[in-house]
Amino acid sequence: MAAVAGPEEPEPGGSFRRYLARLGALRPQPGAERPDGGRRTELHLLFDQLISESCGPAPAAGPSHQDVCALLVQACQLVHLDQEHLVSKVCQLIHHLLNRFQVMVDEQNLNFLLFYCISALKQCSSWTHVEILQALAALVYNNGPKCQKYLPDLLGKSGLLVQFSDSAQPDVELRRAAVRSMANLCLSVPGQPYLDESYRSVCFQTFLSVLQSSKTSDVDDIAFCMLLQNALKGIQSLLNGGKMKLMQTDQIGSLLAVLKKCMFHGLPGLSIEMPAALYPAPLPQYDKRSPVKREQSEPAAVKQAGNRRKKSKGKQKKGEFGEEGREDLGDAGNESVLGADMLKLRLGDVQNSPCSDPRSHASEVAYVPAGKDHLSSHCTGWKRVSSSESEYSDAEGGMQSKTRSYQANVRQGALACFLSAIKSIEKRVLYGYWSAFVPDAPGIGSPQSVSLMTIALKDPSPKTRACALQVLSAILEGSKQFLSVAEDANDHKRAFTPFSVTIASSIRELHRCLLLALVAESSSQTLTQIVKCLANLVSNAPYSRLKPGLLTRVWNQIKPYICHKDVNVRVSSLTLLGAIVSVQAPLPEVQLLLQQPSSSGLNNSGSVTPHRLNSSEQWRKALPSEGEPPDSPAGCTSSEPCWLLRLCVSIIVLPREDSCSDSDANFPSLSSVYEPCPLRLESLQVLALLVKGYFSMAQSYFIELGEVACRCMEEMDPSIQLHGAKLLEELGTGVLQQYKPDSAVAPDQRVPVSVVVTFWTMMLNGPLPGTLQNSPHATLQTSACDALSSILPEAFSSLQNDQQILCVTLLLGLNHSENPLVKAAAVRALGVYILFSCLRQDVMFVADTANAILNSLHDKSPNVRAKAAWSLGNLTDTLIINKETMGQSFQEEFSDLLLLKMLRSATEASRDRDKVKSNAVRALGNVLHFLQPYHIANPRFREAIEESLQALISAVESEATMKVRWNACYALGNVFKNPALPLGEAPWTTQAYSALSSVVKSCKNFKVRIKSAMALSIPSKRECYGSTQQFCQIWSALVVALQKSEDTEDFLEFKYSASLRTQICQALLHLLGLAKSTDLPVIWETIAANGDAIKAYVLQYLKSGVEENEAGTHGDLCERERVLKRAIEHLSGTEKQLEGKARVRVSVYLEDVLTNHANAAELAEA
């Protein structure tokens, strides 16, 4: 067979099959074996040709995986391990073919090839090891679970990869290849077992030691970068795939130290020395910096360079200026231009900048106006410099550029690894290292410590800057509790700095640095990350405890970016504004910002974003002017509408002015007339947050915002419809909050009921009914249900009759939906409507609603059952209200059969999960309270009543959630209010009192104790408490509870102790007012033993009653004193029936308490 092939076949599969045939022909034939030298030469030629082809341009369709595997196996079978040059070429072939065609090797072939490579590593000379390890890395990639039987050879105590990756290994290429193989072994495969713990530990320590090692002078920069990259990828795989949880402090500290070191690897103008490990500490830690030349000019210079990096062109292709990692190395021209020119521009061109110090601009929030001259200066400042102008030669510049690109990849790898580490470390542990990664205000005369913000401000690579901001965002996410300690509202003049002030200082510095980065940044992708990071910071910072001004600076600086050329920047800017209006709302500072006139902060804010500044004027002018609809309703209080509100409305409803950017194409809208869909959705969310947090400001545009919601729900895009429905719900809820009984809003400041009626009439005549019936989109139906349930009851009663019927009919119909989300929302809405005064008196509506709720109470979805139980509780509340207001007429009209069904269903639900149970027991209490004597006498009811009472007693005694027990105690109190029940006689009475007496003494939750004490004080007659023994047990339990009212393991419960003592004192006085003569000996015995303690608590109870009375209505005498006097009168009469000395003791004791109270009151007045 000829050694050199003829013309190639066009199909790669055919070509490979031909190579396979040639390899087959090279197998030694029995009896006709060709000379070994000739076969070896032919193999060399064949492998060279295959390697050459595998390095060429990618074919349209590669060969099949089976063909590639068969070829590689045949090649290995033909090459003996003593033919080292051929072994090297076979391994190169494995490496190239598997990577080029992304081949997944089947297990049988994988075993053969792995055995071959491992044997080669053991037998061949060291010069072949790099190629063999590269082949090994390609083989084990995503095949870790299939390599189990080879792991002892590779990762055991004297495993090959462990030896070759050892820090003592002098050959860096060999070490890198071994680390890469190890990293590939650590990749996880979904659904497959992961590496054993022992191997994971070996790999982790290996990667850690690689990252801790320093580069020696004889090691090439790029090779060292690739070594670090592979180790970082390995650790990231262990953290992600192995779900590794970092628990030990030394392990966390060592990892974070090397990650911090690698985060700054090769960063121009910065050299840091890191300790071997970081330790958790609240204050900044050892962080030694070695200043380098030009250090002083760097803070202003580096990022000013960044400011103009992309402004020469409106559009820039991805990958320019080394944004991407190794993928960009093919474009050597771009890289070399960057390499030579970046340094030159950082040093020289900054002087020509019209805003050469972004720090001052960031802090003052006053920018150079964005005019034509300013734009042209940006463009000229960033003209590409030709190679002839560069101070480096092409080769030298290209090499430097390549090195910088690899160093940037290391920094990106370290940051990606840090992101994975954050997910593997508990947040409370992570925040111990806060000062190592988050900037703090520098002390007087000391340099700023290096942090993630150093990278975000100084790194020349936009991708690395974005990575650093992603990590910072991840740290800030969920930091609300940690940051809540921050406080700098008062000036601290102490010998030490409190931790709260340190954290507050860090928050301020974060604001300053992020705003500085915002001004300096030019890459749209990185800008998006800066704004997202700011949004995360704003969402978690405790502004109410900080000096005002931080949010004002953020607000003013983000305004120009609403008009940025990139739609992603615009969307994230709106997200940030949404965070501002939702954080700890309402904040006085934000209130003032919202009241600023529309023009404030736009004309003078932002040379940084000149792309579409004019459009800010356009959208302002596009809206109707003052006095015209839609933005100036009657009674509008401000002279000019809220800037943010008008902005959001304009983005949502007005046609777009022009094409914002190419990135808009990523978000195809149903109609290109409007702004991109993500922008409109974010605007709708901001509007909803604005309405929720600052309704007093939004209510001036109540009808207009309703029109916006209508327009959105009329559109074809379900996501726009959904957010329109959510806006509608927030508008409805805002009005509901204003009309709550405890609302602080004065009646004349509320949205008038007539306006609310107009609003809901518009909704019901508009798209809302259609949206509710839009069955393909269950989430939309759910939101529409929630919106319909937010209607003001006073407005509902004023709606036309047909509209009321429409609402009720829609909700009753949706209660039969097959989708659990819709059904849950519908049954909850019915639970709201059942409390409306105009509906609850309609027996037919109550009956229909009851049947619908009971149907949902048996649904298979726990969420539906939980909502149904809540609605059932409301329904039974209505029964009690109707019983008290309508009397016998309603009770007689309401179906006994339905009542029995409710009792049984609620009893069954009380055995469900806690979310259902908590409202089921509430409903049981109400139904048992509602029952009439003829119900109780009815044999059909008797068993159901007994079961329901047992269910309540079990709930009180259970270890269920506190809400269940709280509601169960409340329910028993309701039961005690029904005089038709045989309280004090029936066997269940003893069980109920026993359960309540136990809870009042020992429950960990004080709110449950309060409710149990309240329940024990409800029966109005002595007979209801049963025997003397039972009465005295209740009395003794309350006395013990009073003495233990300050004993708690949970500090959070302590705030309820005063309320608990008040309730117990009320219960004790109530019992004394009912006590019989046979009860008094035990009562006196308790008083004799604990009289002083009881006296002190009762005096405090009387005193607090006087204070409450003074704070409220001024009566003749405190109600609590009247109760005590009645108890004394009752006891005086009762004690006369007793003989001997005990006759007057309890009443005398109480009179002494009353006298002490009166004396104390007189002294206080004097």
Automatic annotation (TrEMBL):
Coiled coil: none
UniProt biased composition (Basic residues): 306-316
Domain of life: Eukaryota
Species assigned in the record: Grus japonensis (Japanese crane)
The organism's taxonomic lineage, starting at the top: Eukaryota, Metazoa, Chordata, Craniata, Vertebrata
Identification of the protein by name: HEAT repeat-containing protein 6
Pfam families linked to this entry: DUF4042, HEAT_2
Domain DUF4042: 410-590
Composition-biased stretches (Basic and acidic residues): 288-297, 317-329
Chain segments annotated as transmembrane: none
Region (Disordered): 288-334
